[in-house]
Amino acid sequence: MIQFHKSELMRFNYKNYVVSFVILFFSIGFVGCTGLTTAEGWGSPLIHDSTLIAATMDDQIIFLNLDDGSAIANHIDIRYSENEMKRAIYGQPVSSPIYYDGSNELFEELIFVATYNGWLHAILDFSENDYEIIESEKITDSQIIGGILTFDNKIYLGTTDGEDGELYSFQISLKTNDRGNPEVSFEDDWSMKFDGGIWSTPFFYNNDLILTTLDGYVHSVDLEGNLNWSKKFDSAISSSPLVINQQVLFGGFDSTFYSLDFDTGEINWTFDEAENWYWATPVESNGIIFAPSLDGNIYALDIDSGRKKWEIQTGDAIVGSPVIINDLIVSGSKDGSIYVAEVKSGEILGQCNIDEKIESDIIADPDSSGVIYFSARDHSFRALKIKSNGNPDEYWEAPYFSDKLKDDKLAQPNDWAPNC
Question: Which of 5, 105, 329, 363 registers the highest number of CB atoms within 10 A of its CB?
Fold first, then answer.
């Protein structure tokens, strides 16, 4: 695990710091044993009705049964030819009800996906076993690393082209075509340029957008594209913020976790005990903020004061966000394990080592008590059942391996052995 202490980080010239970080990230993430490769995302899956929808590391959108992990529909190829660059996806697919143009009628069967190389897709859920891309538009020549935010028939997303970034707003137009099927287009609404790249997903709160940028700023922007305030910090920020109780909550590359006032951007409190950067979005439960760090720890902080209540130690960096299930917090780690701890005390009650790096968010099915879903770097999507005592068990008979779709291999191999 790569670690930089705060004293070392603060000596960096900012521009060199960001450029060095981007080179480091792309070198580690995208260079294999055969040389330079293209981006491979680790986007988190989406639960849509009774289906798990996910972007794979193999240029696909897949649709899995929540209960057994089997494919319920044909996968969608995002790359249209072998000569085309991989269209990696880092952000989570988004499902959002959309109004038909000029109508109060809502349509709830659309899923939106943005790809690393600047494309925005609309996928239509025709039926449980039939999903199709009905619109694809190249919206930018920059890269999309953060996720999509949808609200009131609009899409908001950020881009980066290295040192600079841009926040976009698109109006979603939804009509019915001559065959009676929905027809979607993305119409330019507004955009705002920033001096730092945007790797985060904007957060919507009280009719404003909160976003972070790699030049060390947090920005508040209204829904018309007007800047409310900006707050500068001494290091880059890639973490997507959480806004709750009028507080903007996030961590930076200076290993410090911050609470800002939502209306002004002024600092409420800071927590500086971490030994590495913050990447994942924090989560909240009952007045406690859970802040995952690349130092391998989750810090439980009082939302009003930032005082540490406890910390969970894992064996490697935590890249994805944990999830709260009842009185338990469940997190993945790059050490290859899922950790289950008690929310009140931080005591680790259960652990499952799948021996593969886990970098996606952990998501839970609200309609199925104790079931979590996540992806791993071996191209797998997995489901675990978290018992009330914290013990994790395999929920599917086998994971779904997206790379096994090639060469007539089974997506769920019969020779797989359970890890939990």
Answer: 329
- 176 and 49 assigned to the same domain: yes
In whole angstroms, how far apart are CA 316 and each of 121, 310, 346, 414? 34, 18, 17, 30
369 Cβ contact list (under 8 Å, min separation 6): none
Residue 251: inside a domain: no
Cα–Cα distance for residue pair 348/341, rounded to 1 Å: 4
**Cβ neighbours of residue 124 under 8 Å, at least 6 residues apart?**
109, 110, 131, 132, 133, 134, 181, 182, 184
Distance CA 203, CA 109 (A): 23
Helix then strand then coil, % of the chain, to nearest 5: 5, 45, 50
* Tokens at 168, concatenated: 């976009």
**Cα–Cα distance for residue pair 357/236, rounded to 1 Å:** 24
Residue where a domain stops, chosen among 157, 172, 201: 201
Structural domain including 347 reads 314-413
CATH number at residue 78: 2.40.128.630
Q: Summarize pLDDT for 30-56 with one digit per residue, the tens.
A: 333 323 345 566 678 999 988 999 988
Task: Using alpha carbons, select from 267, 328, 18, 294 the residue that is nearest to residue 165.
Answer: 18
pLDDT digits (tens, 9 = 90+) for 161-202: 978 999 999 999 999 988 888 899 999 999 999 999 999 999
Q: What is the pTM of this model?
A: 0.89
Residues contacting 353, CB < 8 A, separation 6+: 335, 336, 337, 419
Establish how many alpha carbons lie within 13 A of residue 97's alpha carbon, considering only the half-sphere containing its beta carbon.
7
CA distances 173 to 99, 155, 183, 201, 308, Å, are 8, 11, 8, 22, 47
